[in-house]
């Protein structure tokens, strides 16, 4: 078994072990309702961190629009579930909503990627940030309804839709979408996290993944040996957007009402996800998941400390950053690793 396969299987094993421990604690009644309510959000932020790491760590392009992709997946899947709530059973409805939300987000990611991926660096970050804000503001301004006469859209108010008595309002402007079926749970969330990890790990270790990473390292050199730069950048960006949309589906089906507000889909959310990626290690998929879970739960677990919780949270961020990125800390980690795995350290020196 190769080193990469061992790392991948270890990642899956960690996720499954944590899921099993949490399930046991929940069934034993040892987890408070507050903590149980944090489990699904923790997982969908971990999924979004995996998605962003594909874009930032594997492709090497900074995107600040993944909260917008989450928003697209959340709203598109929520609309599908509302329209089929009385027709399909819960399990099938959620599966189809997941397919719809992921596919719509992938399509939007592809369309956004056509003009956006011509840019690099800060310019790309600014344009993706603008996309996230445009999506959020557009959904806040739109009114959508359906009745026997068809679909009605308005940018004024709900009354302007002119719905018949049998009509149903799907998007009510800034009020968002209400009445979404609560189809997601912690187990389903973990399954989707494993799926996201499977997609990301297989992409990294595939021929396409190596081509994408060569573009990240040196675009001109990759182009000179015949790698289609535009094609592979589009592939990575679209897959990254689709996984973020998957997280959005979990988000919308975990609460009965979603609104396109800055609290859920704003600029700060994109920055928060980027923090998870950076602190977990850029290009380190497992690290993104661990960082997202710890850093999402930490402020909530410290709420009892009132004024000091954000101070402690900031200190933890600084410590993690130093441990992950400081040259002296990296050197010490390598020395510790050499003590426990002398054979591996010898192989590195010979190489």
Architecture overview:
With 351 residues, the chain is mainly alpha-helical. The chain folds into 2 domains: 3-141 and 168-296, ABC transporter involved in vitamin B12 uptake, BtuC, CATH 1.10.3470; 302-351, no CATH class. It has 15 helices and 5 strands. The chain has helices at residues 3-27, 33-58, 66-83, 90-116, 121-141, 186-204, 207-217, 219-224, 229-252, 262-265, 267-280, 285-301, 309-325, 327-340, 342-350, and strands spanning 143-147, 150-154, 168-172, 177-178, 257-258. The strands form 2 sheets. Strands 2-1-3 form a 3-stranded antiparallel β-sheet. A two-stranded antiparallel sheet has the order 4-5. It is globular, with a radius of gyration of 22 Å. Mean pLDDT is 85; it is low at 345-351.
List the uncertain runs.
345-351
Q: Spatial order of the strands in the main sheet?
A: 2-1-3
CATH first level of the largest domain: which class? Answer: Mainly Alpha
Shape: globular
State the domain count: 2
Give the N-to-C terminal Cα separation.
Answer: 20 Å
Number of helices: 15
Largest sheet: 3 strands, antiparallel
Structural class: mainly alpha
User: Can you count the beta strands?
Assistant: 5
The name of the CATH topology of the largest domain is ABC transporter involved in vitamin B12 uptake, BtuC
Q: If classified by CATH, what would the architecture of the largest domain be?
A: Orthogonal Bundle
SS strand fraction = 5-15%
Order of helices and strands, N to C?
HHHHHEEEEHHHHEHHHHHH
Question: Roughly how much helix do the residues carry, as a percent range?
Answer: over 70%
